[in-house]
Amino acid sequence: MTRRLLFVIAALGSASMAALSSGCSADDRPTTTGGGAIAPPTGGGADRDGASPDPSGDGGADGLCDPAAITVDGEGIAETIVRSNTPPDPLGGPIAAGTYVLTDVSRFAAGTGGPNDEDGGLGTGTPDSNKLTSKSIVVAGNTYLIGERTGTVGGALSPTPTLTGGTFAIDGTSVTMTDTCPKASEKKIGFTAVGATLSLYWTKDRRETYLRQ
């Protein structure tokens, strides 16, 4: 084989190798979905693990009054009249998460002529109510669900509880309760939370005391 023929063969081989190394166009590359980046998770790309949970459970305010979330089976509590010029001052405190069951209903009435009714005295003033109340409160985070069954002394309690749910915010010795169900409303009341005991002053002369289970 002549030297010239060998030169031609070598030149053709070099050209073929160059074509193989540079002949892969962009259309020949495998397609990568999303441009090669990791796609964000569904839901706007935010990290859902760090998001605040929806307290309603179903994305709506009515979820705060889910009957399955509370059991109201405590005994009926009768109102007790306390002979006192003024009720004790609320003390505030941290309201821990949990289920609170009503243990006492006190109404503070005027009258200093005898000992308190709760001590067996007669005294003077408005007699105690004939109403019985069974009530529970479920606290989770800054949300609450209240279930209440009512009746009268000698009678039966209502079989289906009345439910109220919403969010609360503490301000010193007061707590603002913002109902979102069954209808929107707001009430600021005094309270005392000591250990497992929670007292709510629904009015200036009425105190309900609950025990965390």
Describe this structure in words.
The model is unreliable at 1-61 and 113-125 (pLDDT under 50). The protein has 1 helix and 9 strands, in the order αβββββββββ. The protein has one domain. With 213 residues, it is mainly β. Strands 1, 2, 3, 4, 5, 6, 7, 8 and 9 form a 9-stranded mixed sheet that branches. The chain has one helix at residues 3-22; strands at 77-83, 98-109, 131-140, 143-152, 162-171, 174-181, 185-194, 197-203, 206-212.
Mean pLDDT across all amino acids: 73
Biggest beta-sheet profile: 9 strands, mixed
Q: How many separate domains make up the residues?
A: 1
Strand elements, count: 9
Low-confidence stretches: 1-61, 113-125
Order of helices and strands: HEEEEEEEEE
Report the total helices: 1
Radius of gyration from CA coordinates: 36 Å
First-to-last CA distance: 103 Å
Percent of residues in helices: under 10%
By secondary-structure content and strand pairing, the structural class works out as mainly beta
Shape: globular
Per DSSP, what share of the residues sits in E-state strands of 2 or more residues? 35-45%
Describe the secondary structure blueprint for this structure.
Layout: H1 3-22, E1 77-83, E2 98-109, E3 131-140, E4 143-152, E5 162-171, E6 174-181, E7 185-194, E8 197-203, E9 206-212
Parallel strand pairs: 1-2
Antiparallel strand pairs: 1-3, 2-3, 2-9, 3-4, 4-5, 5-6, 6-7, 7-8, 8-9
Please name the defining characteristics of this protein.
213 residues, mainly beta, 38% strand, globular, disordered N terminus
Outline of this structure?
By secondary structure, the chain is mainly β.
